Amino acid sequence: MKTLLDLDVNNKKVIIRCDFNVPLKDGKITDDTRIVAALPTIKYCLDNNAKVILLSHLGRVKEEADLAKNDLSPVAERLSELLEQDILFSTETRGQELEDAVQMLQPKDVLLIQNTRYEDLDGNKESSNDEELGAYWASLGDVFINDAFGTIHRAHASNCGIASHLPSAFGFLIEKELTALSELDNPEHPFVVILGGAKVSDKIGVIENLVTKADKILIGGGMAFTFLKAKGLEIGKSLLDEENIEFCKKVLTDYPDKIVLPIDVAVTNEYTDDEEYRTKSIEEIATDEMGLDIGPKTEELFEKETASAKIVVWNGPLGVYEFSKYKKHTDKLLAYLVNNNIKTILGGGDIVAAAANAGYKDKVYHASTGGGATLEYMEGKKLPGIEAIK
């Protein structure tokens, strides 16, 4: 893996693709986790006398009205506070103003360029990896560092495009992600996968890739009910991914000893946090009930299945986590894994948010910052941002 340490950045114009796709409310950043995650790479370049040029997207830009709400200037302000220095900000993504700002850069200066997806307003140039745009951005620098793991599964002008024109390497954040996730390529055994979330369709690629490697796949969340339906059980009004019942049947037939399903669930009659729930065996779900979480016996079963694991990878909560009543078993299983020092990789998105909410994000072996990128890695796909630098 070619990393930042393999490049000479001294007195060079270093383009760093970051992931500053942060949540904003009324123009204010509500969570700066992604900005903080980029600091080690930026600081290394500054400590080594580089002229730093930062690129990132923010949100989606489909029409003129999207420009103002996806302006990166709040990120420039927060970066200035975190780095304790002035941050130069180009309001343009190309043109004379930007080129002049780049030419004026001195060692240890930082220039943040406006949202790369502003270029999507005219023909999706950023998102379609427009060759001319990638070459233009590359012309602004001497070397390129990709440190935006969250977009590494997308071929954009600001990652693959630039990388095809400059000496390139991965930043410290991507290095950390790939080092941790590479443990899934040839995992230690017992290797246990925990899958939650809503739909089977979102996890088909993960199941197909990992079922041959894993010793057990524990299935919770809404997707569990499609598997239970595939076994011929009544699931009432529970979430059902009807198109993938046959897929579930095939997996259960081909790998009967690997797939572990809930044995009890928390059920209610309405999709709400207000109504009291009941815990029932999976054989007892009534036609007017829906399951919104696993039950205590299932949690005990999942603890037993992970007790001797050398490595656990987990994607997706086990219940409707946004409802306080149905987050309990996700939190308790996280606590079990942490308290028993079981090597756990949280596979991006909702489960990382759940772990952060419960105070476990920094206590597991690795919590991946990527959502779609992590999922596609777990599916065994080649990721364009990685291949471009390889």
Break the fold down into its secondary structure elements and pairings.
Blueprint: E1 13-17, E2 24-25, E3 28-29, H1 33-47, E4 51-55, H2 65-69, H3 73-83, E5 88-90, H4 96-103, E6 110-113, H5 131-138, E7 143-146, H6 157-163, E8 168-170, H7 172-181, E9 191-195, H8 204-210, E10 216-219, H9 223-230, H10 245-254, E11 259-260, E12 264-268, E13 278-281, E14 290-294, H11 296-306, E15 311-315, H12 328-339, E16 344-346, H13 350-358, E17 366-367, H14 372-378, H15 384-389
Parallel strand pairs: 1-4, 1-7, 4-6, 5-6, 7-8, 9-10, 9-15, 10-11, 15-16, 16-17
Antiparallel strand pairs: 2-3, 12-13, 12-14
Describe the 3D structure.
The structure is a single chain. The protein has 390 residues and is an alpha/beta fold. The chain has 2 domains: 4-172, Phosphoglycerate kinase, N-terminal domain (Rossmann fold, 3-Layer(aba) Sandwich); 185-378, Phosphoglycerate kinase, N-terminal domain (Rossmann fold, 3-Layer(aba) Sandwich). The protein has 15 helices and 17 strands. The protein has helices spanning 33-47, 65-69, 73-83, 96-103, 131-138, 157-163, 172-181, 204-210, 223-230, 245-254, 296-306, 328-339, 350-358, 372-378, 384-389; strands at residues 13-17, 24-25, 28-29, 51-55, 88-90, 110-113, 143-146, 168-170, 191-195, 216-219, 259-260, 264-268, 278-281, 290-294, 311-315, 344-346, 366-367. The strands form 4 sheets. Strands 5-6-4-1-7-8 form a 6-stranded parallel beta sheet, with helices on both faces. A 6-stranded parallel beta sheet has the order 11-10-9-15-16-17, sandwiched between helices. The longest helix is centred in the N-terminal third of the chain and has 15 residues, at 33-47. 51% of the residues are buried. The model has no long low-confidence stretch (mean pLDDT 95).
